[in-house]
Amino acid sequence: MYKDTIAIIDYGSQYTQLIARRVRELNVYSIILPYNFQPSVLNKYTIKGIILSGGPSSVYDNKSPKLNRDIFSNNVPILGICYGLQLLIEEFNGSVKKLGTGEYGPSIIKLENS
């Protein structure tokens, strides 16, 4: 089994390699996996956290990459960036609404209890 690892799941972001580099600059081992990875791959590592990258898709597109629910069996923190966060929101029955324009940089998140 490999050392403590951050798994980065790639959903097609142009920044996936940059995310991995930043994690490694913090002296933390990281691996990049495609979104359709085989869950058994994670068993080779001591996963300490998972980062879901961004990507060009929308969670509401039928052909978009889906969340591999096996990531939850690791019982580790999960960070979703852009599309990765949208996947997590959808998984936990939240909703993502289109504003009509793209967003870059900091954003305000409004939490509503239903």
Notes on the protein architecture:
Helix 1 (16-25) links the parallel strand 1 (4-10) and strand 2 (29-34). The radius of gyration is 15 Å and the shape is globular. The chain has a 4-stranded parallel beta sheet with strand order 2-1-3-4. It has helices at 16-25, 83-91; strands at 4-10, 29-34, 46-52, 78-80. By secondary structure, the chain is an alpha/beta fold. Helix content is 17%, strand content 20%. The relative contact order is 0.21. The mean pLDDT is 89. The chain has 2 helices and 4 strands, in the order βαβββα. The termini are far apart.
Entry keywords:
4 strands; alpha/beta; 20% strand; 114 residues; 2 helices; four-stranded parallel beta sheet
Shape: globular
What is the end-to-end distance?
43 Å
Stretches with pLDDT under 50, minimum 5 residues: none
**Main sheet overview:** 4 strands, parallel
Helix and strand composition category:
alpha/beta
Major sheet strand order: 2-1-3-4
**DSSP E strands, number:** 4
How much of the sequence lies in strands comes to 15-25%
The topology string of helices and strands comes to EHEEEH
What is the multimeric organization of the chains shown? single chain
Short structural description:
The chain has 114 residues and is α/β, with parallel strands linked by helices. It is built from two helices and four strands. Strands 2-1-3-4 form a four-stranded parallel sheet.
